[in-house]
Every structure is written in C-alpha cells, then in structure tokens.
User: Which sequence fits this backbone?
C-alpha cells in the first residue's frame, strides 16, 4: 500500500500550479510549464520570486489619492509637484494607468475609478471612485479632466456620467484617434496611446 507521504509528494507543487492557472493569460497547461521552469531555475528565479512576492504581499497598497498601486499611502505620481499641471487623466484600472505611463506622453496626474458603471452587476457611482474624483476636481485646481476609459459600452456610459457630473466645472476631453471600439488601453501599443492622447478632443 502506497504511503500517504508518497501520495502527497506533489501536493504543494500541484497547489502552486492551480494558483498560477488563475492568473490572467495562464491556463492549466501554461501554468504547469511556468512552474516547471521555475523549479528548474530555482536559485535564479523561484527563490528570488518567492522573496519579492512576500515583500509585495506585505507592502503593496492603493494610493489614497488616485488609486494607483505602490508601497506608500500616496504614490510617487501624486506626490510629485512636477505632475501638478492641472491635467487629470481618468482611467478604469491600474493596468490602464501603467499603460499610459509606459507611453511616456502624459505628464499630469491620474485617477483610477476601479471599474465602470454596470447596471447588470449593480455597480453604481458609489462602488467606484467617482465621488473622490469630483472631490479632487474641486480641491486640486484641476483645469482639464481627460476621460481615458476603455472604448466599451460600460466605459462610454461611465464617461457620459462623469461628463454630466463635471460639466461646466472643468474642461473635459476624451482620447481620440487610434483607440478601436472595444479596445482596452492595456493592450494598445505605446504609439497608439500617444496618438490618442495628443489628438484628444473636447466632450
């Protein structure tokens, strides 16, 4: 009869594969390949990765001001006086903020909503960071709000809602050419994002 120890000899590895498979873009097969690669490169990859993940698990937090992810209560972008140029770029998710930063063309500050309005999912303005956005426009001497939401039905609905709430208080613009219908910022190349931002139009 096989011992319990032998039956459980791969349990931890199986658990790691199962967790990895839950990551975006990874299914069970890709997760198995990734875990095998990490194990084979244990000293070079697996151990340092485990150490860094432990640190991030303990220190990562959302910026209290904009919703970006970092290790401080106020992120570097919000804390920088150089970014206080009156421009506030509203994005759906942190991944979109990072995509905008990757393009290197935007020099203002950001506001992460944490999603979009969705009646089907019972997500209203209070479930998002829309009240905080309105507060920031009043408090931070914002002159322009750039609505850089994904070009989806929910994204456009959210843009129209925000435009209604802020209409008359501040200049409202939206990304222009280069962003396809149904497109998500995180999947666009840097050149496309730059063109869309530079050619933004008033709402």
Assistant:
């Amino acid at each position: 009869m096989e011992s319990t120890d032998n039956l459980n000899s791969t349990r931890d590895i199986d658990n790691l594969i199962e967790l990895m498979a839950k990551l975006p873009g990874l299914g069970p097969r890709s997760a198995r390949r990734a875990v095998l690669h990490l194990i084979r490169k244990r000293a070079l990859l697996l151990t340092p990765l485990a150490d860094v993940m432990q640190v991030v698990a303990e220190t990562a937090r959302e910026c209290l001001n904009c919703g970006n992810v970092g290790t401080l209560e106020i992120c570097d972008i919000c804390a920088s006086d150089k970014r206080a140029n009156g421009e506030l770029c509203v994005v759906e998710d942190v991944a979109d903020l990072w995509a905008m930063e990757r393009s290197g063309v935007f020099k203002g500050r950001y506001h992460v909503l944490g999603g979009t309005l969705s009646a089907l999912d019972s997500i209203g303005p209070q479930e998002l960071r829309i009240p905080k956005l309105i507060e920031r426009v009043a408090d931070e001497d914002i002159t322009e709000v750039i609505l850089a939401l994904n070009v989806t039905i929910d994204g456009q609905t959210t843009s129209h809602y925000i435009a209604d709430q802020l209409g008359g208080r501040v200049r409202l613009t939206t990304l222009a050419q280069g962003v396809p219908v149904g497109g998500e910022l995180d999947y666009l190349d840097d050149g496309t994002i730059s063109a869309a931002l530079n050619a933004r139009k008033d709402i």
